[in-house]
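In response to the reviewer comment on reproducibility (Comment 2.3), we provide here a single inverse folding case reported in full, input and output, so that an independent group could reproduce the run without further information from us. The structure tokens appear first.
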């Protein structure tokens, strides 16, 4: 069994940004940025679901050596990490070389990226602004 990777959310976000993935940071890490005292051990995003973005997301996941996270396989399970596979999932729990990483295309109570993007708050996370990676304008994707 491989050791559990240290949680490095900034490296996850940098990989997404290098590939110009459009996404909204959600979940515990986003709550922490908004002042929640609770800490999380994974990063959660809601990506834009269009063909180009799914291709970019797949490349970022490959760079992060993403595998499906499951209790039965501590090292994760390999999957077809491509745009076609990603287009057919709603939720994906992954393990990466930077720690646990989850994708939710339609988070509870939302209609997905297009619903969330107009309300994005910008944060500079160690020189990394997630929203700027995809052009900085939710409207251009709407």
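Designed residues, in position order:
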């Amino acid at each position: 069994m491989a050791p559990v990777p240290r949680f490095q959310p900034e490296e996850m976000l940098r990989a997404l940004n290098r590939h110009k993935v459009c996404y909204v940071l959600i979940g515990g890490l986003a709550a922490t940025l908004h002042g929640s005292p609770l800490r999380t051990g994974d990063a959660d995003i809601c990506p834009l679901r269009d063909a180009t973005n799914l291709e970019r997301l797949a490349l970022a996941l490959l760079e992060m050596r993403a595998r499906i996270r499951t209790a039965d396989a501590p090292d994760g399970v390999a999957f077809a990490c491509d745009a076609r596979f990603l287009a057919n999932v709603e939720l994906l729990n992954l393990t990466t070389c930077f720690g646990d990483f989850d994708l939710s295309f339609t988070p509870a109570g939302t209609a997905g990226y297009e619903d969330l993007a107009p309300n994005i708050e910008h944060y500079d996370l160690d020189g990394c602004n997630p929203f700027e990676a995809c052009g900085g304008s939710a409207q251009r994707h709407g």
